[in-house]
Amino acid sequence: NKQVVLTEYVTGFPKESHLAVRNGGKIQLKAPQGSVLVKNLYLSCDPYMRGRMSPPKAGGDPNFASFTPGSPIQGFGVGKVVDSGVAEFKSGDFVWGVTSWEEYSIISNTKTLFKITNTEDVPLSYYTGLLGVMVVGMPGVTAYFGFHDVCAPKKGEYVFVSAASGAVGQLVGQFAKLAGCYVVGSAGSKQKVELLKSKFGFDEAFNYKEENDLDAALKRYRYFPEGIDIYFENVGGKMLDAVLSNIRVHGRIAVCGMISQYNLEHHEGVHNLAAMIYKRVRMQGFVSFDYFARYSELLDDVVPYVKEGKIAYVEDVAEGLENGPAALVGLFSGRNVGKQVVAVAHE
Ligand code: NDP
């Protein structure tokens, strides 16, 4: 049973050598009573997993407990039931939920495992991203509720999205266009900027790595000199500062993530926070699992758009568990183009 294990706890930027692919021994083909044996097909790579690679912290959230060095790492994935010791699942079922990074997993906590009933309309791997629900890393719920609930958009408003070509960002941009907003995105390469404009329908996009002055970069966009109404925050740091100096009165900032800060031992300060006072800005953090109970709203609204080709969804699929470490670590250098998935097997 091939596995990806954490070799040692990480401080600073994660490297491929913090993860190792090893043979975890013979595959057990029978599920013990109360457990399900799953063949893992697709594994989701999510930025929050970086936090679980750090040493344990006292008082940390148990949902994001540190991984154990020498053991397989865990995350969300899609799999096929091989054998079941519980009534809710039978062999042959497709499922998604919390699993381990290995070829076969015995899952004893079946509360975090869900049957995939719609295997016809969308590719199975989408359940790691677009249609996933169960954890912070599940981009569809994050983008959908983060944008609609936290940002409360109105038609015609001006929206800015950072890390815009990624799993969450690409969806936020498209939801914003569907809501009738003007949307600008930033991303870290020419290829990603092209994708934002040609595939995801952003009105404008720029490569933040080529800008010395982010404040001036934002002012370049057609309506932004009037101010940004909504900022969907994925990166933090200097970008947040630049947005704060360009935000409009009564602007909203949905703080989804701050990936530029995750690997820093001392987080960067934000200088323009006072803008929140005189601009009456509302800035709100949120976590996708706040919205689990409303998952069916996402399915009802978004699956038809996907079927009609009105929402594009780009995945970056790494083939084989051996490419898993590079795929996960690559999130922090922007190697991924779209939602990063690891395909362990295709069926
Ligand atoms: P992505 O698919 O966007 O992958 C991460 C991307 O972040 C990279 O491709 C890279 O793109 C960008 N990036 C990496 N390092 C930096 C940096 N130093 N500065 C600026 N950009 C950087 O990941 P997700 O869509 O899954 O996640 C996006 C954000 O949303 C993250 O902050 C994540 O933690 C957060 N999140 C929050 C959730 C919640 O419930 N609140 C749930 C899911 C995600 P580029 O080439 O553009 O730099």
In brief, what are we looking at here?
It contains eight helices and 15 strands.
Question: What would you call the structural class?
Answer: alpha/beta
Query: CATH homologous superfamily of the largest domain - what is it?
Result: Medium-chain alcohol dehydrogenases, catalytic domain
Largest sheet: 7 strands, mixed
Oligomer: single chain
Tally the structural domains.
2
Rg for CA atoms: 20 Å
Question: Average pLDDT, to the nearest integer?
Answer: 92
**Helix share bin:** 10-25%
Percentage beta strand = 25-35%
Cα distance spanning the termini = 16 Å
Low-confidence spans: 132-137
Bound molecules: NADPH dihydro-nicotinamide-adenine-dinucleotide phosphate
How many helix segments?
8
CATH architecture of the largest domain: Alpha-Beta Complex
What is the H/E order?
EEEEEEEHEHEHEHEHEHEHEHE
Number of strands: 15
- Enter the CATH topology name of the largest domain: Quinone Oxidoreductase, Chain A, domain 1
Principal-axis shape equals: globular
**The CATH top-level class label of the largest domain:** Alpha Beta
Q: Can you give a write-up of this model?
A:
By secondary structure, this protein is an alpha/beta fold. The chain has two domains: 2-130 and 314-343, Medium-chain alcohol dehydrogenases, catalytic domain (Quinone Oxidoreductase, Chain A, domain 1, Alpha-Beta Complex); 139-289, Rossmann fold, CATH 3.40.50.720. It is 20% helix and 25% strand. It has helices at residues 139-150, 167-178, 190-198, 214-219, 238-244, 275-278, 295-307, 324-330; strands spanning 2-6, 19-23, 36-44, 74-84, 94-100, 104-107, 113-115, 158-161, 182-187, 204-207, 228-233, 247-255, 282-285, 315-319, 339-343. Strands 3, 4, 5, 6, 7, 14 and 15 form a seven-stranded mixed β-sheet that branches. Strands 10-9-8-11-12-13 form a six-stranded parallel β-sheet, sandwiched between helices. Helix 1 (139-150) packs across helix 2. The protein is globular. The two termini are 16 Å apart. Mean pLDDT is 92; it is low at 132-137. NADPH dihydro-nicotinamide-adenine-dinucleotide phosphate is lined by residues 46-48, 136-137, 139, 142, 163, 165-169, 187-189, 192, 234-235, 256-260, 286-288, 331-332, 334, 336, 339-340. NADPH dihydro-nicotinamide-adenine-dinucleotide phosphate binds next to helix 1, helix 2 and strand 15.
